[in-house]
Specification:
The protein is of the alpha/beta class. Helices cover 25% and strands 16% of the residues. It has helices at 11-14, 36-41, 43-49, 84-96, 115-120, 182-197, 247-258, 274-277, 295-298, 303-316, 335-339, 341-353, 381-385, 426-429, 436-449, 451-454, and strands spanning 17-20, 53-56, 100-105, 134-135, 156-159, 164-167, 202-205, 265-268, 290-291, 324-326, 357-361, 457-460, 468-475, 478-485, 491-494, 501-506, 515-516, 519-522, 527-532. The structure holds 1-deoxynojirimycin (NOJ).
Length: 533
């Protein structure tokens, strides 16, 4: 039965998640790359900000072909990031501050350097051969089918020595594991237990919808909507290479591994249309606790489009399925780059007041923008394969102060800082009443103060103004109305007669505490939270 039937206030429902990209958070040993001790050093900041959990992108031993998403040992720590002792200390220190720790679990593929793959490719009859996905060449000697790599080019690489192709949904250095093989599942369950025993509070599972592929390896159909500027993978609809019905058994099994450990969370990374996304809660709410909802990243930034999205998502959720929202991550252009800084403040309010668990991406709270990467400093392999699609601009170092290298490192960091690092940093912004950091922190504080914002119900409030999206969150007699101006014009908005409202927060500094009578004047790109009183 369900692994998710639990109190409405279990931490991952009422709480917030903060994603740390470990290479870019804090360097503690002067190599220009962030590490575990660096994260531990910054836990006070994370706790001060007011989030509840830290999700750390992969820290396992890895050749770093895809910066850790190519795992060579699922139960270790890469020396770049530190040691298992450093990890244990991080978990202990996080827990001391009541912060949960979520690990990135990368089960779809290992590194080509993983001993499992070394064995698998040794010969066709090696006991581990079937741990990966091997096929004979097509009659013309080419790849077995038309599946493409997410990073460009074919998804099949010929292993000359054994004369078969292996499948890799990403880089050729990231061979896909064969999740139809029970031995692979058992080994991976042991990996989960290894980290659960070390005290981790959950997992974000990488590309969870990819785990099972079509048994017959049928060609993917052409995508009629493909546009030339899109990554090559979009030429075909990923109908047979991912999102197969058998995947739910695999996820439910993972969920059952977590179940004896109590309130640990299973988050699934899923880029699928809404109706497919919500299937990942599982037929009996027995799969992902939180199938990551990236719809705010994919929806045009307009009040009407976002309002529709929220309504549609709320309607699509299975009964008992808990919503979640994501604005950005290490694979997507920064929110400030997508919609501009004034609207990034509106986005912060939206993220932290919609119903559902929000995931914040490190650096968004200081308004980090797209950082231009000179050609000779490109790191992301995707950028090399398909220029223009690289993810380095959103992976640049966190900016802590106006010192050398923004307090991130004592040497030139692995990726450049933003041009405005001297002013765009935590130290400069933490006490500034009008900074985006202060806005984030106040919102996170209000979520903790008001159950209506964290676990309360949701209803849209139609105001009839195109550029304005309004909704209410309510719980136990408390109602908070959120009004967001997506446009650049001011609006005078009548408040319901006979009601009194107090401004709890505005994206403009200095408004909180104001008691409203009559109308609300909403300035351009202003967002407010009003408490019905
Ligand atoms: C999704 C991760 O978020 C991304 O960074 C990575 O490159 C791919 N999965 C492959 O693991």
């Amino acid at each position: 039965m369900s692994g998710t039937v639990c109190s409405p206030t279990v931490w991952w429902r009422s709480g917030t998640v903060y994603q740390v990209y470990p290479r870019s958070f804090q360097d503690s040993n002067g190599d220009g790359i962030g590490d575990l001790r660096g994260i531990t050093r910054r836990l006070d900041y994370i706790a001060w900000l007011g989030v509840d959990a830290v999700w750390i992108s992969p820290i396992y031993p890895s050749p770093m072909a895809d910066f850790g998403y190519d795992v060579a040992d699922y139960c270790g720590i890469d020396p770049i990031f530190g040691t298992l002792d450093d990890f244990d200390e991080l978990v202990a220190e996080a827990h001391r501050r009541r912060l949960k720790v979520i690990l990135d679990f990368v089960p779809n593929h290992s590194s080509i350097a993983h001993p499992w793959f070394t064995e698998a490719r040794a010969s066709r009859n090696n006991a581990r051969r079937d741990w990966y996905i091997w096929r004979d060449p097509a009659p013309d000697g080419g790849p077995p089918n038309n599946w493409l790599s997410n990073f460009g080019g074919p998804a099949w690489t010929l292993d000359e020595a054994t004369g078969q192709y292996y499948y890799h949904a990403f880089l050729r250095e990231q061979p896909d594991l064969n999740w139809r093989n029970p031995a692979v599942r058992a080994a991976m369950h042991d990996v989960l237990r290894f980290w659960l025993e070390r005290g981790v509070d959950g997992f974000r599972v990488d590309v969870i919808w990819h785990l099972i592929k079509d048994e017959g390896f049928r060609d993917n159909p052409e995508n009629p909507d493909f546009l030339p500027h899109q990554p090559e993978i979009n030429r075909f609809a990923q109908v047979y290479s991912a999102d197969r019905p058998e995947v739910f058994d695999v996820i439910a099994e993972m969920r059952r591994v977590l179940a004896p450990y109590g309130d640990r969370v299973l988050i699934g990374e899923i880029y699928l249309p809404m109706e497919r996304l919500v299937a990942y809660y599982g037929p009996d709410l027995d799969c992902a606790d939180l199938p990551f909802n990236f719809q705010l990243i994919q929806t045009p930034w307009r009040a009407d489009a976002v309002a529709d999205l929220v309504e549609n998502y709320e309607a699509a959720l299975p009964p008992g399925g808990w919503p979640n929202w994501v604005l950005g991550n290490h694979d997507q252009p920064r929110i400030a780059a997508r919609i501009g800084l004034p609207q990034a403040r509106i986005a912060a309010i939206l993220l932290l007041t919609l119903r559902g668990t929000p995931t914040l991406y490190y650096g968004d709270e200081i308004g980090l923008d797209h950082v231009s990467i000179p050609p000779d400093r490109v790191q992301d392999p995707w950028e090399r394969n398909e220029p223009g699609h690289g993810r380095d601009p959103e992976r640049t170092p966190m900016q802590w102060d106006d010192g050398p290298y923004a307090g991130f490192s004592t040497v030139e960091p692995w990726l450049p800082l933003s041009a405005d690092a001297v002013s765009r940093n935590v130290e400069e912004m933490r006490d500034a009443a009008d900074s985006i950091l202060t806005l984030y922190r106040r919102l996170l504080g209000l979520r903790r103060e008001h159950a209506s914002l964290s676990v309360g119900s949701y209803r849209t409030v139609p105001l009839g103004v195109d550029e304005v999206f309004a909704y209410e969150r309510f719980e136990d007699g408390t109602t908070i109305r959120v009004i967001l101006n997506f446009g650049e014009a001011a609006h005078r908005l009548p408040l319901p007669e006979g009601t009194g409202w107090t401004v709890l927060l505005s994206s403009r500094a200095g408004q909180a505490g104001t008691r409203l009578r009559g109308d609300l004047v909403l300035e351009p790109s202003e967002g407010v939270l009003l408490l019905l009183s």
